[in-house]
Amino acid sequence: MYAVIANGGKQYQVAEGDVIRLEKCAAQVGEQIELPEVLLVSDGETQHVGAPHVSGATVTVEVVAQDRAKKVHIIKFKRRKHHMKQMGHRQYYTAVKVVGISVAA
After folding, report:
1. Residue 92: which of 23, 11, 41, 27 has the closest Cα?
2. For residues 64 and 74, what is the distance between their CA atoms, to the nearest angstrom?
3. How far is CA 75 from the centre of its chain?
4. 15 with 55: CB under 8 angstroms?
5. How far is CA 58 from CA 37, 75, 95, in A?
6. pTM over 0.85
7. Please, are residues 92 and 71 in contact by the beta-carbon 8 Å criterion?
8. Of all residues in the chain, what percent carry a pLDDT higher than 70?
9. CA dihedral 36, 37, 42, 43 (to 10 degrees)
10. Torsions phi, psi of 16, nearest 5?
11. β partners of residue 66
12. pLDDT band for position 105 (50/70/90)?
């Protein structure tokens, strides 16, 4: 069984046991949260497609880690002017493990 969920303006295809990185959310490590924005649920035989969300479907996840991603380096350079500006950014994320996918019949 797999599902397609929406979180932070992005879509993720998840199955039970998958570990994915979501946008930072205010939850403690070990805490279970439910993600109600389920766009599609499939069990191999039948598919439930939402318009825009599947009613009664939730994906339960457990927070594994709260961390920061690798640094992204930004360089702005102006030719022939001896000017260069360097910046860096590390995005916060929440790593979660999918515990269960449920659909209300």
Report:
1. 23
2. 29
3. 28
4. no
5. 7, 42, 18
6. no
7. no
8. 99
9. -20
10. -65, 135
11. 94
12. low
- 33 closest CA partner among 90, 98, 86: 98
Q: What letter represents residue 47's amino acid?
A: Q
b (16+ CB within 10 A) / e for 48-66: beeeeebeebbbebbbeee
Residue with tokens 């932070």: 8
Q: How many residues does the chain have?
A: 105
Q: What is the DSSP string of the chain?
A: -EEEEEETTEEEEEETT-EEEEE--S--TT-EEEE--EEEEE-SS-EEE-SSS-TTEEEEEEEEEEEEPPPEEEEEEETTTTEEEEEEE--EEEEEEEEEEEE--
